[in-house]
Protein backbone atom coordinates (compact mmCIF):
# COMPACT_ATOMS: atom_id res chain seq x y z
CA UNK A 1 0.00 0.00 0.00
CA UNK A 2 1.45 3.40 -1.02
CA UNK A 3 1.24 6.42 1.30
CA UNK A 4 2.28 10.05 1.21
CA UNK A 5 3.22 11.14 4.74
CA UNK A 6 3.07 14.82 5.68
CA UNK A 7 4.55 16.03 8.98
CA UNK A 8 3.32 18.82 11.23
CA UNK A 9 5.89 21.10 9.54
CA UNK A 10 4.59 20.32 6.05
CA UNK A 11 7.48 18.12 4.89
CA UNK A 12 6.37 15.09 2.88
CA UNK A 13 7.70 11.64 2.11
CA UNK A 14 6.48 8.80 -0.09
CA UNK A 15 6.56 5.32 1.39
CA UNK A 16 5.02 1.88 1.05
CA UNK A 17 3.87 -0.59 3.68
CA UNK A 18 2.59 -4.13 3.60
CA UNK A 19 -0.58 -5.00 5.46
CA UNK A 20 -1.41 -5.24 8.27
CA UNK A 21 0.57 -2.12 9.24
CA UNK A 22 0.85 -0.71 12.76
CA UNK A 23 1.06 3.09 13.16
CA UNK A 24 2.42 4.73 16.33
CA UNK A 25 5.39 6.37 18.00
CA UNK A 26 6.93 3.08 19.17
CA UNK A 27 10.07 2.23 17.13
CA UNK A 28 8.67 -1.27 16.50
CA UNK A 29 5.71 0.12 14.53
CA UNK A 30 5.60 -0.14 10.74
CA UNK A 31 4.91 3.60 10.42
CA UNK A 32 6.60 5.61 13.19
CA UNK A 33 5.25 9.09 13.99
CA UNK A 34 7.25 10.37 17.00
CA UNK A 35 5.13 13.01 18.67
CA UNK A 36 3.46 13.34 22.07
CA UNK A 37 0.14 13.46 20.18
CA UNK A 38 0.70 9.94 18.87
CA UNK A 39 0.16 6.87 21.06
CA UNK A 40 2.78 4.13 21.14
CA UNK A 41 0.37 1.97 19.14
CA UNK A 42 -2.04 4.52 17.69
CA UNK A 43 -3.87 2.72 14.85
CA UNK A 44 -3.62 -0.07 12.29
CA UNK A 45 -4.18 -0.45 8.56
CA UNK A 46 -5.90 -3.81 8.05
CA UNK A 47 -6.89 -5.88 5.03
CA UNK A 48 -10.36 -7.45 5.01
CA UNK A 49 -11.95 -9.22 2.06
CA UNK A 50 -9.60 -7.53 -0.38
CA UNK A 51 -10.20 -4.02 0.99
CA UNK A 52 -8.20 -1.81 3.39
CA UNK A 53 -9.60 -0.52 6.70
CA UNK A 54 -8.30 1.85 9.39
CA UNK A 55 -8.72 0.88 13.06
CA UNK A 56 -8.11 3.23 16.00
CA UNK A 57 -6.56 1.57 19.05
CA UNK A 58 -8.34 3.86 21.53
CA UNK A 59 -5.80 6.67 21.17
CA UNK A 60 -6.23 10.03 22.89
CA UNK A 61 -6.13 12.25 19.79
CA UNK A 62 -7.89 9.66 17.63
CA UNK A 63 -7.99 9.13 13.87
CA UNK A 64 -9.78 11.31 11.33
CA UNK A 65 -10.76 10.06 7.88
CA UNK A 66 -11.44 12.94 5.46
CA UNK A 67 -12.18 15.29 8.38
CA UNK A 68 -14.42 12.91 10.37
CA UNK A 69 -13.30 11.02 13.46
CA UNK A 70 -13.48 7.26 12.97
CA UNK A 71 -12.77 4.19 15.07
CA UNK A 72 -13.00 1.30 12.61
CA UNK A 73 -13.82 2.43 9.10
CA UNK A 74 -13.38 1.49 5.48
CA UNK A 75 -12.92 0.44 2.84
CA UNK A 76 -10.32 3.15 2.20
CA UNK A 77 -10.17 4.65 -1.28
CA UNK A 78 -7.53 6.30 -3.41
CA UNK A 79 -7.00 9.89 -2.28
CA UNK A 80 -8.43 9.40 1.22
CA UNK A 81 -6.63 11.45 3.89
CA UNK A 82 -6.01 10.10 7.39
CA UNK A 83 -5.07 12.57 10.14
CA UNK A 84 -3.33 11.24 13.25
CA UNK A 85 -2.20 13.76 15.86
CA UNK A 86 -1.15 16.43 13.35
CA UNK A 87 0.28 14.05 10.72
CA UNK A 88 -1.47 13.47 7.38
CA UNK A 89 -1.37 10.13 5.57
CA UNK A 90 -2.69 10.33 2.01
CA UNK A 91 -3.44 7.07 0.19
CA UNK A 92 -1.72 7.21 -3.21
CA UNK A 93 -2.05 3.61 -4.33
CA UNK A 94 -2.88 0.00 -3.56
CA UNK A 95 -0.09 -1.53 -5.66
CA UNK A 96 1.06 -5.11 -5.16
CA UNK A 97 4.74 -4.17 -5.21
CA UNK A 98 4.91 -3.78 -1.45
CA UNK A 99 8.21 -4.39 0.36
CA UNK A 100 8.89 -7.31 2.63
CA UNK A 101 7.97 -6.90 6.29
CA UNK A 102 10.89 -8.98 7.52
CA UNK A 103 12.55 -5.99 9.17
CA UNK A 104 9.32 -4.26 10.25
CA UNK A 105 10.47 -0.93 8.83
CA UNK A 106 8.85 1.52 6.47
CA UNK A 107 10.53 1.42 3.07
CA UNK A 108 10.56 4.14 0.44
CA UNK A 109 9.18 3.33 -2.96
CA UNK A 110 10.87 6.37 -4.43
CA UNK A 111 14.02 8.32 -3.69
CA UNK A 112 14.05 9.55 -0.11
CA UNK A 113 13.68 13.25 0.53
CA UNK A 114 16.91 13.34 2.54
CA UNK A 115 20.05 11.27 2.72
CA UNK A 116 19.56 7.95 4.52
CA UNK A 117 22.01 8.77 7.30
CA UNK A 118 20.13 11.96 8.16
CA UNK A 119 16.88 12.25 10.14
CA UNK A 120 13.79 11.67 8.01
CA UNK A 121 13.69 15.31 7.26
CA UNK A 122 15.33 18.47 8.42
CA UNK A 123 13.40 20.72 10.77
CA UNK A 124 12.84 24.35 9.94
CA UNK A 125 14.64 27.10 11.81
CA UNK A 126 13.52 27.14 15.49
CA UNK A 127 10.35 29.09 16.05
CA UNK A 128 7.88 29.41 18.88
CA UNK A 129 4.66 27.50 18.26
CA UNK A 130 1.33 27.44 20.07
CA UNK A 131 1.83 23.79 20.92
CA UNK A 132 5.40 24.27 22.07
CA UNK A 133 6.53 21.41 19.83
CA UNK A 134 7.68 20.69 16.28
CA UNK A 135 6.89 17.22 15.06
CA UNK A 136 8.56 14.91 12.54
CA UNK A 137 8.43 11.27 11.57
CA UNK A 138 11.11 8.67 10.95
CA UNK A 139 11.46 5.20 9.55
CA UNK A 140 10.61 2.23 11.71
CA UNK A 141 14.29 1.71 12.60
CA UNK A 142 14.76 5.11 14.19
CA UNK A 143 15.33 5.60 17.92
CA UNK A 144 12.59 6.87 20.21
CA UNK A 145 12.54 10.72 20.24
CA UNK A 146 14.81 12.28 22.82
CA UNK A 147 11.77 14.05 24.32
CA UNK A 148 10.75 10.68 25.76
CA UNK A 149 14.11 10.19 27.47
CA UNK A 150 15.51 11.25 30.81
CA UNK A 151 18.14 13.36 29.02
CA UNK A 152 15.47 15.61 27.53
CA UNK A 153 13.85 16.03 30.96
CA UNK A 154 17.17 16.94 32.59
CA UNK A 155 17.94 19.53 29.93
CA UNK A 156 14.43 20.98 30.34
CA UNK A 157 14.99 21.46 34.06
CA UNK A 158 18.48 22.95 33.63
CA UNK A 159 17.46 25.37 30.90
CA UNK A 160 14.30 26.37 32.76
CA UNK A 161 16.32 27.49 35.78
CA UNK A 162 18.97 29.16 33.61
CA UNK A 163 16.32 31.08 31.67
CA UNK A 164 14.60 32.35 34.82
CA UNK A 165 17.96 33.52 36.19
CA UNK A 166 18.87 35.25 32.93
CA UNK A 167 15.54 37.07 32.63
CA UNK A 168 15.33 37.98 36.35
CA UNK A 169 11.55 37.82 36.18
CA UNK A 170 11.08 38.25 39.92
CA UNK A 171 12.84 41.65 39.88
CA UNK A 172 11.13 43.08 36.82
CA UNK A 173 7.91 45.03 36.49
CA UNK A 174 6.12 42.70 34.08
CA UNK A 175 3.09 45.00 33.87
CA UNK A 176 5.08 47.17 31.42
CA UNK A 177 5.98 44.26 29.15
CA UNK A 178 3.46 42.67 26.80
CA UNK A 179 3.08 38.90 26.71
CA UNK A 180 4.41 38.75 23.14
CA UNK A 181 7.49 40.83 24.02
CA UNK A 182 8.23 38.61 27.01
CA UNK A 183 7.78 35.44 24.95
CA UNK A 184 10.09 36.69 22.22
CA UNK A 185 12.73 37.83 24.72
CA UNK A 186 12.60 34.48 26.50
CA UNK A 187 12.77 32.58 23.21
CA UNK A 188 15.81 34.53 22.00
CA UNK A 189 17.56 34.18 25.36
CA UNK A 190 16.87 30.45 25.41
CA UNK A 191 18.30 30.13 21.90
CA UNK A 192 21.58 31.61 23.13
CA UNK A 193 21.65 29.29 26.15
CA UNK A 194 21.09 26.24 23.95
CA UNK A 195 23.78 27.38 21.51
CA UNK A 196 26.25 27.76 24.36
CA UNK A 197 25.59 24.33 25.89
CA UNK A 198 23.04 21.62 25.16
CA UNK A 199 23.31 17.85 25.49
CA UNK A 200 20.23 17.19 23.34
CA UNK A 201 20.85 16.27 19.67
CA UNK A 202 20.53 19.10 17.17
CA UNK A 203 17.33 17.88 15.54
CA UNK A 204 15.57 17.91 18.96
CA UNK A 205 16.74 21.37 20.04
CA UNK A 206 13.85 23.22 18.38
CA UNK A 207 11.39 21.07 20.32
CA UNK A 208 13.34 21.65 23.53
CA UNK A 209 13.52 25.41 22.99
CA UNK A 210 9.78 25.77 22.40
CA UNK A 211 8.75 23.56 25.34
CA UNK A 212 11.05 25.28 27.86
CA UNK A 213 9.97 28.73 26.68
CA UNK A 214 6.27 27.84 26.98
CA UNK A 215 6.86 26.52 30.49
CA UNK A 216 8.91 29.54 31.61
CA UNK A 217 6.70 32.40 30.40
CA UNK A 218 3.46 30.69 29.33
CA UNK A 219 1.35 27.85 30.67
CA UNK A 220 3.63 25.07 29.44
CA UNK A 221 1.91 21.75 28.74
CA UNK A 222 -1.45 23.29 29.68
CA UNK A 223 -1.49 25.45 26.53
CA UNK A 224 -2.26 22.72 23.96
CA UNK A 225 -4.74 21.10 26.35
CA UNK A 226 -6.59 24.39 26.86
CA UNK A 227 -6.65 24.89 23.08
CA UNK A 228 -8.03 21.38 22.46
CA UNK A 229 -11.82 21.74 22.30
CA UNK A 230 -12.30 17.99 22.85
CA UNK A 231 -10.79 18.23 26.36
CA UNK A 232 -13.36 19.21 29.01
CA UNK A 233 -11.25 18.79 32.15
CA UNK A 234 -7.52 18.76 32.94
CA UNK A 235 -6.21 17.07 36.09
CA UNK A 236 -2.57 17.37 37.19
CA UNK A 237 -2.06 14.82 39.98
CA UNK A 238 1.71 15.41 40.02
CA UNK A 239 4.03 17.41 37.81
CA UNK A 240 4.71 14.30 35.72
CA UNK A 241 1.22 12.76 35.88
CA UNK A 242 -1.54 14.44 33.86
CA UNK A 243 -5.05 13.19 33.10
CA UNK A 244 -7.72 14.67 30.83
CA UNK A 245 -11.44 14.11 30.34
CA UNK A 246 -12.64 13.66 26.77
CA UNK A 247 -16.18 12.65 25.84
CA UNK A 248 -16.91 11.96 29.52
CA UNK A 249 -13.99 9.55 29.97
CA UNK A 250 -10.75 10.05 31.92
CA UNK A 251 -7.47 9.20 30.19
CA UNK A 252 -3.78 9.60 31.02
CA UNK A 253 -2.02 12.17 28.84
CA UNK A 254 1.64 12.09 27.73
CA UNK A 255 2.19 15.81 28.37
CA UNK A 256 4.06 16.51 31.63
CA UNK A 257 5.81 19.38 33.40
CA UNK A 258 9.59 19.32 33.72
CA UNK A 259 9.60 19.73 37.52
CA UNK A 260 7.57 20.62 40.60
CA UNK A 261 9.00 24.15 40.57
CA UNK A 262 7.91 24.65 36.94
CA UNK A 263 4.35 23.66 37.85
CA UNK A 264 4.37 26.02 40.85
CA UNK A 265 5.63 28.89 38.67
CA UNK A 266 2.79 28.37 36.19
CA UNK A 267 0.24 28.38 39.03
CA UNK A 268 1.68 31.67 40.29
CA UNK A 269 1.32 33.19 36.81
CA UNK A 270 -2.32 32.11 36.69
CA UNK A 271 -3.10 33.56 40.12
CA UNK A 272 -1.18 36.85 39.79
CA UNK A 273 -3.89 38.73 37.79
CA UNK A 274 -6.57 37.40 40.18
CA UNK A 275 -4.95 38.85 43.28
CA UNK A 276 -4.96 35.45 44.98
CA UNK A 277 -2.15 33.49 46.58
CA UNK A 278 -1.13 29.89 47.11
CA UNK A 279 1.33 29.18 49.91
CA UNK A 280 1.74 27.21 53.13
CA UNK A 281 -0.66 29.49 55.01
CA UNK A 282 -3.24 29.19 52.22
CA UNK A 283 -2.58 25.78 50.58
CA UNK A 284 -5.72 25.67 48.40
CA UNK A 285 -7.09 28.22 45.96
CA UNK A 286 -9.92 28.65 43.43
CA UNK A 287 -9.87 30.93 40.43
CA UNK A 288 -10.55 31.21 36.73
CA UNK A 289 -8.41 31.50 33.65
CA UNK A 290 -8.67 34.23 31.03
CA UNK A 291 -10.90 32.00 28.87
CA UNK A 292 -13.34 31.44 31.76
CA UNK A 293 -12.13 27.95 32.72
CA UNK A 294 -12.44 27.11 36.42
CA UNK A 295 -9.12 26.60 38.18
CA UNK A 296 -8.35 24.83 41.46
CA UNK A 297 -4.95 24.08 42.99
CA UNK A 298 -3.75 22.41 46.21
CA UNK A 299 -0.23 22.40 47.66
CA UNK A 300 1.61 19.81 49.77
CA UNK A 301 1.26 18.69 52.50
CA UNK A 302 -2.51 18.89 51.84
CA UNK A 303 -1.86 17.20 48.48
CA UNK A 304 0.26 14.29 49.69
CA UNK A 305 1.92 13.36 46.38
CA UNK A 306 2.69 16.89 45.21
CA UNK A 307 0.98 19.98 43.85
CA UNK A 308 -2.42 19.12 42.37
CA UNK A 309 -4.26 21.20 39.75
CA UNK A 310 -7.75 20.77 38.32
CA UNK A 311 -9.09 22.86 35.42
CA UNK A 312 -12.72 22.64 34.34
CA UNK A 313 -13.17 23.95 30.79
CA UNK A 314 -16.40 25.23 29.29
CA UNK A 315 -17.58 25.22 25.67
CA UNK A 316 -16.31 28.14 23.59
CA UNK A 317 -19.65 28.24 21.80
CA UNK A 318 -22.64 29.03 23.96
CA UNK A 319 -25.05 26.13 23.91
CA UNK A 320 -28.83 26.13 23.60
CA UNK A 321 -31.59 23.58 24.16
CA UNK A 322 -31.21 22.40 20.56
CA UNK A 323 -27.61 21.37 21.31
CA UNK A 324 -28.75 19.25 24.26
CA UNK A 325 -31.37 17.67 22.01
CA UNK A 326 -28.75 16.77 19.41
CA UNK A 327 -26.58 15.04 22.02
CA UNK A 328 -29.56 13.14 23.45
CA UNK A 329 -29.31 14.80 26.87
CA UNK A 330 -33.09 15.22 27.07
CA UNK A 331 -36.24 14.61 25.01
CA UNK A 332 -38.06 17.27 22.92
CA UNK A 333 -40.95 17.21 25.44
CA UNK A 334 -38.56 17.87 28.32
CA UNK A 335 -36.88 20.69 26.40
CA UNK A 336 -40.24 22.31 25.69
CA UNK A 337 -41.30 21.98 29.33
CA UNK A 338 -38.08 23.61 30.61
CA UNK A 339 -38.38 26.42 28.08
CA UNK A 340 -41.96 27.13 29.19
CA UNK A 341 -41.02 26.86 32.87
CA UNK A 342 -38.32 29.52 32.45
CA UNK A 343 -40.52 31.83 30.39
CA UNK A 344 -43.36 31.51 32.94
CA UNK A 345 -40.93 32.55 35.70
CA UNK A 346 -40.77 29.30 37.63
CA UNK A 347 -38.09 29.11 40.31
CA UNK A 348 -35.80 26.27 39.24
CA UNK A 349 -33.18 24.32 41.19
CA UNK A 350 -30.66 22.29 39.15
CA UNK A 351 -29.34 19.32 41.13
CA UNK A 352 -26.65 16.78 40.28
CA UNK A 353 -23.34 15.21 41.18
CA UNK A 354 -19.89 16.52 40.32
CA UNK A 355 -19.32 16.90 36.60
CA UNK A 356 -22.93 16.26 35.56
CA UNK A 357 -23.27 19.59 33.72
CA UNK A 358 -25.16 21.79 36.21
CA UNK A 359 -23.47 25.01 35.12
CA UNK A 360 -23.90 24.10 31.45
CA UNK A 361 -27.65 23.55 31.92
CA UNK A 362 -27.95 26.83 33.83
CA UNK A 363 -26.32 28.60 30.88
CA UNK A 364 -28.71 26.84 28.49
CA UNK A 365 -31.81 27.72 30.53
CA UNK A 366 -30.73 31.36 30.62
CA UNK A 367 -31.12 31.51 26.83
CA UNK A 368 -34.89 31.15 27.37
CA UNK A 369 -35.08 34.35 29.47
CA UNK A 370 -36.59 37.36 27.73
CA UNK A 371 -33.98 39.89 26.60
CA UNK A 372 -35.84 42.70 28.35
CA UNK A 373 -35.23 41.27 31.84
CA UNK A 374 -32.38 42.21 34.17
CA UNK A 375 -30.34 39.30 35.53
CA UNK A 376 -27.80 39.25 38.38
CA UNK A 377 -25.59 36.17 38.79
CA UNK A 378 -23.69 35.25 41.97
CA UNK A 379 -20.78 32.79 41.94
CA UNK A 380 -17.69 31.76 43.87
CA UNK A 381 -15.74 31.49 40.60
CA UNK A 382 -17.42 33.18 37.63
CA UNK A 383 -18.37 30.44 35.16
CA UNK A 384 -21.77 31.46 33.81
CA UNK A 385 -21.75 33.03 30.34
CA UNK A 386 -25.18 34.51 29.74
CA UNK A 387 -26.24 35.96 26.40
CA UNK A 388 -28.02 39.02 27.81
CA UNK A 389 -26.99 42.65 27.54
CA UNK A 390 -28.66 43.56 30.87
CA UNK A 391 -26.65 41.10 32.96
CA UNK A 392 -24.55 41.80 36.06
CA UNK A 393 -22.06 39.14 37.21
CA UNK A 394 -20.89 39.20 40.84
CA UNK A 395 -18.08 37.02 42.19
CA UNK A 396 -17.20 36.25 45.81
CA UNK A 397 -13.75 37.02 47.21
CA UNK A 398 -11.73 35.16 49.87
CA UNK A 399 -10.06 36.92 52.79
CA UNK A 400 -6.57 38.36 52.33
CA UNK A 401 -3.45 37.35 54.28
CA UNK A 402 -4.65 39.37 57.29
CA UNK A 403 -8.06 37.68 57.26
CA UNK A 404 -9.78 40.81 55.99
CA UNK A 405 -11.80 41.69 52.90
CA UNK A 406 -13.84 38.51 52.49
CA UNK A 407 -17.03 38.84 50.43
CA UNK A 408 -19.15 35.69 50.50
CA UNK A 409 -22.17 34.70 48.41
CA UNK A 410 -24.55 35.76 51.16
CA UNK A 411 -23.12 39.29 51.11
CA UNK A 412 -23.35 39.36 47.32
CA UNK A 413 -26.99 38.29 47.50
CA UNK A 414 -27.82 41.24 49.74
CA UNK A 415 -26.08 43.57 47.25
CA UNK A 416 -27.91 41.96 44.33
CA UNK A 417 -31.30 42.73 45.89
CA UNK A 418 -30.43 46.45 45.67
CA UNK A 419 -29.68 46.22 41.93
CA UNK A 420 -33.32 45.90 40.81
CA UNK A 421 -32.94 42.38 39.40
CA UNK A 422 -35.81 40.62 37.64
CA UNK A 423 -34.08 37.29 38.22
CA UNK A 424 -31.24 36.15 40.46
CA UNK A 425 -29.07 33.20 39.45
CA UNK A 426 -26.88 31.59 42.13
CA UNK A 427 -24.08 29.52 40.60
CA UNK A 428 -24.02 27.06 43.49
CA UNK A 429 -25.61 26.97 46.95
CA UNK A 430 -23.22 25.69 49.60
CA UNK A 431 -24.30 27.27 52.87
CA UNK A 432 -26.41 29.86 54.64
CA UNK A 433 -26.96 31.83 51.41
CA UNK A 434 -29.67 29.26 50.57
CA UNK A 435 -32.04 31.01 53.01
CA UNK A 436 -31.49 34.39 51.34
CA UNK A 437 -31.92 32.86 47.88
CA UNK A 438 -35.26 31.30 48.87
CA UNK A 439 -36.34 34.59 50.44
CA UNK A 440 -35.54 36.42 47.19
CA UNK A 441 -37.59 33.88 45.24
CA UNK A 442 -40.50 34.57 47.59
CA UNK A 443 -40.26 38.37 47.40
CA UNK A 444 -40.79 39.42 43.80
CA UNK A 445 -37.87 37.74 42.04
CA UNK A 446 -39.72 34.83 40.47
CA UNK A 447 -37.88 32.98 37.75
CA UNK A 448 -34.66 32.79 39.76
CA UNK A 449 -32.41 29.74 39.47
CA UNK A 450 -29.62 27.99 41.34
CA UNK A 451 -27.66 24.74 41.59
CA UNK A 452 -26.50 22.41 44.33
CA UNK A 453 -24.79 19.03 44.64
CA UNK A 454 -27.20 16.15 45.29
CA UNK A 455 -27.86 12.72 43.81
CA UNK A 456 -31.69 12.84 43.83
CA UNK A 457 -34.37 15.55 44.06
CA UNK A 458 -35.25 14.35 47.57
CA UNK A 459 -31.59 14.61 48.59
CA UNK A 460 -31.53 18.12 47.14
CA UNK A 461 -34.39 19.15 49.44
CA UNK A 462 -32.65 17.62 52.45
CA UNK A 463 -29.44 19.49 51.65
CA UNK A 464 -31.40 22.70 51.16
CA UNK A 465 -33.02 22.26 54.58
CA UNK A 466 -29.60 21.84 56.17
CA UNK A 467 -28.25 24.94 54.43
CA UNK A 468 -31.18 27.08 55.61
CA UNK A 469 -30.61 25.90 59.18
CA UNK A 470 -26.96 27.02 58.81
CA UNK A 471 -28.22 30.62 58.59
CA UNK A 472 -28.44 30.58 62.40
CA UNK A 473 -32.03 31.79 62.62
CA UNK A 474 -33.10 28.91 64.89
CA UNK A 475 -36.19 28.16 62.80
CA UNK A 476 -38.33 25.04 63.36
CA UNK A 477 -37.87 22.41 60.65
CA UNK A 478 -41.51 22.71 59.59
CA UNK A 479 -41.10 26.45 58.99
CA UNK A 480 -37.98 25.76 56.92
CA UNK A 481 -39.87 23.22 54.79
CA UNK A 482 -42.76 25.63 54.25
CA UNK A 483 -40.24 28.28 53.20
CA UNK A 484 -38.72 25.88 50.63
CA UNK A 485 -42.09 24.63 49.34
CA UNK A 486 -43.33 28.17 48.72
CA UNK A 487 -40.14 29.27 46.97
CA UNK A 488 -39.25 26.32 44.72
CA UNK A 489 -41.32 25.19 41.75
CA UNK A 490 -39.16 22.83 39.68
CA UNK A 491 -36.16 20.59 40.45
CA UNK A 492 -34.10 19.34 37.49
CA UNK A 493 -31.94 16.32 38.37
CA UNK A 494 -28.85 15.63 36.24
CA UNK A 495 -26.75 12.48 36.09
CA UNK A 496 -23.81 11.00 34.25
CA UNK A 497 -24.01 7.48 32.82
CA UNK A 498 -21.18 4.93 33.13
CA UNK A 499 -20.15 5.69 29.53
CA UNK A 500 -19.63 9.36 30.43
CA UNK A 501 -22.79 10.72 28.81
CA UNK A 502 -24.53 13.52 30.73
CA UNK A 503 -28.31 13.83 30.67
CA UNK A 504 -31.39 15.19 32.42
CA UNK A 505 -32.35 12.25 34.62
CA UNK A 506 -35.53 13.64 36.16
CA UNK A 507 -37.77 16.71 36.22
CA UNK A 508 -39.94 17.00 39.34
CA UNK A 509 -42.39 19.59 40.56
CA UNK A 510 -42.74 20.77 44.15
CA UNK A 511 -46.45 20.55 44.96
CA UNK A 512 -46.57 21.70 48.60
CA UNK A 513 -46.44 20.13 52.07
CA UNK A 514 -48.45 17.22 53.36
CA UNK A 515 -47.95 15.48 56.73
CA UNK A 516 -45.04 17.88 57.40
CA UNK A 517 -43.19 16.55 54.34
CA UNK A 518 -42.48 18.38 51.08
CA UNK A 519 -44.38 16.67 48.29
CA UNK A 520 -42.85 16.04 44.87
CA UNK A 521 -44.34 14.69 41.66
CA UNK A 522 -42.19 13.35 38.83
CA UNK A 523 -43.09 14.80 35.43
CA UNK A 524 -40.30 13.31 33.29
CA UNK A 525 -37.65 10.70 33.98
CA UNK A 526 -34.97 8.62 32.29
CA UNK A 527 -34.74 4.84 32.55
CA UNK A 528 -32.01 2.89 30.71
CA UNK A 529 -34.49 0.32 29.40
CA UNK A 530 -37.12 2.84 28.25
CA UNK A 531 -35.21 6.10 27.69
CA UNK A 532 -36.98 9.39 28.44
CA UNK A 533 -40.59 8.97 29.57
CA UNK A 534 -43.37 11.30 30.73
CA UNK A 535 -45.34 10.36 33.83
CA UNK A 536 -48.58 11.84 32.48
CA UNK A 537 -49.15 13.90 35.63
CA UNK A 538 -50.45 17.42 35.10
CA UNK A 539 -48.10 20.28 35.89
CA UNK A 540 -49.31 23.47 37.49
CA UNK A 541 -47.05 25.52 35.21
CA UNK A 542 -47.06 23.76 31.81
CA UNK A 543 -50.08 21.68 30.79
CA UNK A 544 -49.51 18.13 29.46
CA UNK A 545 -50.90 19.08 26.05
CA UNK A 546 -48.35 21.88 25.72
CA UNK A 547 -45.57 19.68 27.02
CA UNK A 548 -46.28 17.07 24.37
CA UNK A 549 -46.52 19.60 21.55
UniProtKB/TrEMBL annotation:
Domain of life: Bacteria
Gene Ontology terms for molecular function: ATP hydrolysis activity
SUPFAM superfamilies associated with the record: P-loop containing nucleoside triphosphate hydrolases, SMAD/FHA domain
InterPro entries xref list: FHA_dom, P-loop_NTPase, SMAD_FHA_dom_sf, T2SS/T4SS_dom, T4SS_GSP_E_ATPase
Residues annotated as domain FHA: 21-70
Coiled-coil segments on the chain, per record: none
PROSITE patterns: FHA_DOMAIN
Family annotation (SMART domains): FHA
Family listed: Belongs to the GSP E family.
Stated name of the protein: FHA domain-containing protein
Taxonomic source organism: Alcaligenes faecalis
Amino acid sequence: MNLELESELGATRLCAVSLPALIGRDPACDVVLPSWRIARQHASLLQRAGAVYIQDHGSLTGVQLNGKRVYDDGPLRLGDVLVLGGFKLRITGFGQEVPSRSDGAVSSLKSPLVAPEQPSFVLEEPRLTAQGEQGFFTSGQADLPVSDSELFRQEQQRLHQALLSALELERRDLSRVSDKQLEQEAFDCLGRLIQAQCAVPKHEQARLQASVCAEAVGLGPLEPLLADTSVSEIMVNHYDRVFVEQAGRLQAHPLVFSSESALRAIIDRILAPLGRRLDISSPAVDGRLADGSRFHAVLPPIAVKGTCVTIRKFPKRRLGLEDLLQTGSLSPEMAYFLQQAVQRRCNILVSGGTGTGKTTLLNVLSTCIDSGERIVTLEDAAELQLQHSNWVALESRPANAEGQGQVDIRSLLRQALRMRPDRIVVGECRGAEAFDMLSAMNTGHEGSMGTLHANTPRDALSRLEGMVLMAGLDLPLLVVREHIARALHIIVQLSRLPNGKRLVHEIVEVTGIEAQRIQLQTLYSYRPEFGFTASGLRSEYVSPSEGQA
